[in-house]
Amino acid sequence: MEPIKVLGEPALLLSDGTLVVADLHLGFENELRSKGINIPLKVDELSARMKNLIRSTSSKRLAILGDIKHHVAGPEKLEFLVVPEFFSAIRGELSELHVVLGNHDGDLEALLPRNVVIHGSAGLAWGENWLTHGSTKLPKEATSSRRIIMGHVHPSVRIKDTMGYRYSFQVWLSGAMKGGKGRTIIVMPSFNKYVGQLAMNEPTRANLRGPLLSKKEVDLESLEVQTLDGHALGRLGDLT
Fold it and tell me: 162 or 101: which carries more pLDDT confidence?
């Protein structure tokens, strides 16, 4: 059964009732402040959105596909505050909480509650799905999964109208993977809407897309594009 996209939010609901999100980037405010951009902490907003999602979907199980914190290496001072605060706010809503490590999650384990189940960045099988962050190659056992669900790239598209105005949208990407095994891929938008987005319909460096969106794995231009509120925009290659 195809996962259900939660309209208006970058979240999936799997057939067993598991809620899936990706890319929280807690503590991202510190990087902006280092560049002279002062914004208030967003941890309360992010945790409130997550609690609303959990309640509205009646989910008791949550899987977060990597990049829980923002700093790539070990935790920065702000992350010692906001990561535990986020998990403290949502943990009572859930019976199970799973975290797949992302490339920003160095030494994350020290910040998480003891009853969080931690998985390596390659991910894990979940029913007919393989849940992964997307920054590393998949293990051989992932090839038997019908569907790959990943985050990592924060996909968006930028569109220019006839007056020259540019619009940017967070989007879902989905489509067939190469190899002739009938596997499909779903690329999730980042749960944190304040972090940078990668405009997938503009020239991008291949290393930013990660190994799962390489030419070897997918025909990027053939992937279907959908906005958070459910509008189909067509194929990525047509959105120039």
Answer: 101
